[in-house]
Amino acid sequence: MLGTILLIILILLLIGAVPAWPHSRSWGYAPSGLLTILVVVAIIALLTGYI
């Protein structure tokens, strides 16, 4: 249950950091790249049973 909530929050953060939004256009791809790494780590943790 906790892992699913964490994954949903990380996906929402990833969508919010996409440089297409006006508030984040000057940030470049760094925030979405970092959040993508966090999502991948969370998925791996879910699949291996750590979360």
State the end-to-end CA separation.
9 Å
Q: What's the helix count?
A: 2
User: What is the SS-derived class?
Assistant: mainly alpha
DSSP strand content:
under 5%
Which sheet architecture does the biggest sheet show? none
Helix content estimate: 55-70%
What Rg do the Cα atoms give? 12 Å
Topology readout:
Layout: H1 2-16, H2 30-48
What does this protein structure show overall?
The N and C termini lie close together (9 Å). α1 packs antiparallel against α2. The protein is built from two helices and no strands. The chain is mostly helical and 51 residues long. The protein is elongated, with a radius of gyration of 12 Å.
Q: How would you sum up this structure in a few lines?
A:
The chain has helices spanning 2-16, 30-48. The chain is mainly alpha-helical and 51 residues long.
Characteristics:
single chain; mainly alpha
